[in-house]
Design brief:
Blueprint (H helix, E strand, L loop, with lengths): L1 E3 L5 E3 H10 L4 H14 L21 H10 L4 H11 L1 H28 L23 H11 L5 E7 L2 H6 L10 E4 L5 E5 L2 E5 L7 H11 L3 E6 L10 H21 L6 E4 L6 H15 L3 E4 L2 E2 L2 E2 L6 H10 L2 E4 L16 H4 L1 H15 L2 H4 L4 E4 L6 H14 L18 E4 L5 H11 L4 E2 L13 H6 L6 H16 L2
Parallel strand pairs: 3-7, 7-8, 8-9, 9-12, 12-13, 13-14, 14-15
Antiparallel strand pairs: 1-2, 4-5, 5-6, 10-11
Helix pairs in contact: 1-5, 2-3, 2-4, 4-5, 9-10, 10-11, 13-15
The structure holds zinc ion.
Zinc ion binds next to strand 3.
Length: about 475
Amino acid sequence: MATLHPSGVTYGRRAAAVNESRASEHGARIAAQRAARRDIGTSDPGPERHVGQPDLATHEDEAGRRAGLRRQRESPHRLLRRFDELDGRRAREAAEVRSIDVQDFEQDERQHEHEADGVGRHPQDPARAVRSHQPPHTPDRGARSRCILRAMRSLDIHAHVTPQCFWHATENGGEWYGIRRERDASGGEVAIVGPGRQSLPPKARWTPEERIADMDSLGVDVQIVSTYVGFYNYHFDAEVAAGTARAINDELAEMTRTWPKRFAAGLGTLPMQDVKASIAELERCMMQLGLRGVEINDHVNGRTLEEPEFRPFWKAVEEMGAVVFFHQAGETLVSPRSKRYHLPNSIGNLADRAVTFATLVHGGVMDAYPNLKIVLGHGGGYTCYGIGRMDHAWRVRREAREHLALPPSAYLQRFYYDCIVYTEEALRFLIDTVGVERVVFGTDWPYDMALDWPVAWILAMKSLTQDEKDAILWKNLERLLGV
Ligand SMILES: [Zn+2]
């Protein structure tokens, strides 16, 4: 199954053999890879340590010594990348080693499935274990998957925070801006937000340190943190919503300052029912708190964001270079039709996101502010699948051309889309429709609708090239956010 390297790393058999046999031939590159591998599986790096930051290992030759000096300043991921850039041969060999890792992982997985009794291998949810791409969460295999998954970087733009200030304030029946908390019949936490009751999963309470431990287990290096959407509070009095936004944004900023390598950036929340107040808080987020943008709902109390009242908001967003991450909250377009079967979420999120794309495009926002950086959560919902019909409408119906000189499909590449689409076929379709440079990694931590083993899921895909996986897992978000 796997061998134990003298340094303490659990290697896949074949990957270890490749590394050992090539060490003498390609001293610098292999030394760097080995250092990265040796380090990344040894221990929890802790909050302030970059994942995989290597020590100064011994080196057989001058090239290795120089590589070691460079490693003092660079992460092994960057180091591997730079070596990859040296020439095509090295890049191909590096890809081969990574490919072997994934193959070995999959072989181990099949072997394990053969040995296991089929279900009940996932301690939290046995039903999840039957899906073939999920590594069973046993301790030794957890270490094994961490070793593999950390061979490359991963940045997650879809990671929610239920702020600690809320948990602390609502302890012992207290209130946080009028929001209370109680337990349901099964002992689960419920936030009482105005007239609404919102269930919170156990992970929502986790401290940043506990988040980091969970990120380690998932192979996620960096979370771009944003609020739990149940606290948008657009339906509150604007001053109250501004208060909760400030408190949440302060906490997000504190996370990015305290753990800059694990929470490299934050996306604030705004009191969108008051455009002036939103612009003021956006400015505070961008200029004072060091956040990189905001997360907002697909609508503000039923009004979509192309409405004239929001033009000053878009102008400010563009001028400040803020990233806008669209994410629904609560009821969606499906809710009035059916609240059963989790359809307001499983179907409604996707419908809402397609409406956001369409209204911003048809409403002229994308033409008026050409430099907007907008990320559509959940793969943009039904946008890509439905774009042909939008184009057809643009051709045959005057009202669909009212503000639009080009068909809606011409705007697909003006947006970014997270990868939360659940099937490889859907992700491949998304990439082929919008271009891989527009697809970014997201997980939806910490909810039950999150991708289960998000990094492993991407890495194991047969229909994606290594370059496409790199682009999705980290390159596109590095470029978009400057992290
Ligand atoms: Zn989410």
